[in-house]
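Appendix B. Chain record.
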Amino acid sequence: MDKLEKIKLTDIIPDPTQPRKDFDPDKIIELAESIDAVGQVQAITVQRIKGAEFGKPQYMIIAGERRWQASQHAGKETITAIVVDGEKEFSNDKVYAHQITENLHRENLNPVELGEFLEKRLKYLKEQGISNPREYAAKELGKSPSWISKNTAILKYGEDVRSLARNGKMRDYSILKKINNLGPEKRKTAIQLIEEGQFNSKEFFARKRYDTKKVEPKEQTPTQKKEEQKPLSLKLQLSPDQVIRLIEKTEFSFVLDKNAPTWRNTDNKEMSIYMDKFMEWVNDSI
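Structure tokens predicted for this chain:
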């Protein structure tokens, strides 16, 4: 049967597989001040270390490492703990259930810690022969398989992006994903702004093509420049009717109608003049 005991802080060690690695020093101090003022409100949960030697820590924390750390800061010598029955040592599954409840639903793991913890759980389930570990883990947590996928995706991000989440600088998955997809320079800028506390996601991602690299125009040779400046010409042998039909497909026909209303009734020689003027108009319009 589990027992409630007063145990020396020095007789307790944290669980090395504990999912939470990021403990906010300020929050630990706040909790320490609360413990100092009103005492320990909730007991931690520990189990005896099997085969522990005399004079060395005898217990390992299952849940409550923050309270254990805060009690140390408060200068306490002992802490109230629920000691699980030594004859019924906690299984990996039971430890997992306690720790995930403690951290996920109460203390909010940062995205990287949560991803790493879920990944370890998936690996364990695979080793136990579970055919679909993702669905199995989702049922344990009352979540969907897609939630598991979403929360382990961050482990594939670059270390610079993961460090933002690990250090508590950014917890928004959608922003972390966007930053991870940025080009090197833009990502470096985003991370620097976050580190300095000056990052505004709406402002930073305001433009749709925020990561488009500017393509510098190639320097043109004198020959290329000369060729580009050369006007278009039409050296085809066209009949007057063909010229008329061609011009009538453009706005230049309105110019001629206004300034030379009889242009459609001219002979070949005059029509060639209108054709030249038409080509000048085309070149000026380009």
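Further analysis of this model is presented in Appendix C.
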